[in-house]
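Second opinion, please. Pick holes in both lines of this record:
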Amino acid sequence: MRFDSLTQFVKTPEAVPAKGPVAVVLVEDNIEVATTLRHHLQAGFAHVIACMPTDFDMPRDLVEDVIRIDYDMSVEGALEGAINPIIAAVPAGTWLYYCYNAEFLFHPFCETRSVGEMLAFHTEERRDGMLTYVVDLYSDDLWEHPDAVSLDRAHLDRSGYYALARPDAQGHPKERQLDFFGGLRWRYEEHVPEARRKIDRISLFKTKPGLKLRPDHTLNDEEYNTYACKWHHNLTAAICSFRTAKALKQNPGSTYDIHTFKWHNSAPFEWHSRQLLDLGLMEPGQWF
């Protein structure tokens, strides 16, 4: 199913998913688009929506399974411009997820449990949002893979992650909120604007009237932005992403300064939730 615009999609009631979880993939370029869409279909999302440029091709095997919306991701405010109308269009209480192409959601025990099972447990814990960490992936050979993307040769940083208190308007720390840093945005921070150095997103959340996604990947309801409830730790997930590596190699201001992303704390990515759990890059909470 294909729509010429986001407006056409939200004004077509029979096309808007009536039940979640729903994944929205924001397509910025032609790299690993089909892989990203297939990954999230296999993760157990009831519906996958692709917001992508008009001239990009959709693989034939995905045409029936993916809702395609023609959308320009290069415009100012493209993130919130895509997600907020979808929040308003789907029924209240729908679990919604978003990511970019060449990004892959991993949650605890995802090899044997679907994203729907995880969100059912999260709902039982009275949580309406889930913190996700963006874990940078990169090829270990930039000569062979000049765009830094290789599924077979993907690496990640196994250390170098940290958190700082998130201040409110008066400079006081917000309750149960932290700003998280690490990965390529930390190692190459001189090439990354300060506002884009965080690696935390509230990428999974339950829709409700008036809810809005903000440009910094937080929501306008502060409880959604907390990493855990008041009484114990909660589930978190990871988005394993080539997006930062791609940007650093495509940007003329940084590409010639970077000959390899590998360092002494690089490790091959195993494409398995156990590695991410062992590295502390996501939290199973009380879910066993």
